Amino acid sequence: MGVKILAKYIGDDNVELTHTPSGNKIITDLPLDNGGKGRTFSPTDLLASALSSCILTIMAKIAAKENLDIKESEIEIEKIMSDKPPRRVAKFVGRIKLKGVSEDKKSVLLNAVKTCPVTKSLHPDIEISFSD
Question: Which end of the chain is more exposed for a tag (fewer CB within 10 A), N or C?
């Protein structure tokens, strides 16, 4: 079964997104580098957010199976837009900070970068690199 998202233009370069199963809402704005005001997440910022959230979620599932607690672990991600037309995301560069995880368990968790559904859904031309 699919999940429906309702996107509604509300003016001033803002779009309101509604997650219809829960009613939760997010507002997006046109980014500064595309002539907007950059007051909140842009659509491509949400793509970066989806990638990092997906990776941490998969890591949490793996950690639960391994009896690890990764609470307070973080991903800092930078979205880099292409400087050539067409306008698109060129790459994501991130840093993963795993809290309370031994070195021998990190590689198991870091595999989540490759296995998360968002990573698998991105076009192969988009570079994705993470360090820890």
Answer: N
